[in-house]
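seq as requested:
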Amino acid sequence: MPVQRASVLLADPDPARRRAGLAALRAAGLSAVGAAHQAEAERLSAAHRPALAIVDTTLPPGGGWAAIRALRRVAEVAVVLLSHDRDQASRVAYLAAGADDVLDQPAAPEEVAARARAVLRRLTAAPGLCKTLAHGDLVLEPHGATAWVGDRRVQLTPDQGSLLRLFLEFPGRVFSRAELAARLGSPPGESGRDEAIDGHVRALRRKIEPDPSHPCSLLSVRGFGYVLARAEDASPLARELELLRVALQETPTPLVVVDRARRLVLLNRAAEALAGDAAQALAEQQTCADLFQCRRPDGAALTGRACPGLAALRGADGQELPICLRTSTGQYEVLCTHRALRASGQDFVLMAFRSATQPCSATI
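struct tokens:
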């Protein structure tokens, strides 16, 4: 599928590289403008509203990250960094902080143009970048500078529009402050980054919440970040489960929560890696037995009253039992602990797997 002509800003302080890069971009069918320093990049960005900025990390006066932050204050823009840090750790850090692609300098002009076309194809395919987004009576217009709360028009800064678009694209997902800062082009570890995000969220709440001091849509997750509540998240149970998901996510021990019917409610990342196909299992509301096919080491099924999860709900929780399980990633013998949980008056079971590395001798 051909890429539509799009405005690209190439910001590189080296005149020869800049001329060669612009020639390659234009030969690839892209309209492109070039800047030698940050002030020129800001001026051209305001005039042309490029969809993509290709920025050298040595761009004066403050380097590539300062230029990206300045450009994203003007408008939402995708970013390809031309890096002089020729190591994998730096490239990973740039990508984690919000760059769409990273090339090592000196980069071949033809490769710069090819990477630009690839990023623009992704932008064209991403529906959230070119459509109106709505959440209840909150509506964000495509360009991100204007939102509506019912009949009330709200003007947004580029940073506010960028954050609100992210929340509207993924309602119900909790974003850390680091993820939100990366959306705005802040590099990892930047001083004052979390405080800046908190300030943006407070400003958004003043514009979109009926009572900013008691927000009902843009909610805080204490010690972590923020979430735009879905309509169903208004229930205390949904909020408690979302907070539990965030708390368990980075724990290295595989953890699984199921309801009284043993249907999967959530898994942390370690459990997803162990299970292999957890996303589909959650979507289909499978049981833990479907996903893990648990047995005792002697091969006996853990069903009915023999199920340790049901025993935990009856009060016999906290016992560590050897269990054999089979998943799409392999067959394991683990030590499993089942503990009863209660959230908003409903019963759940938290399963924790330990030593999930030994091959299981039982036939499953």
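The two ends are 48 Å apart (CA to CA).
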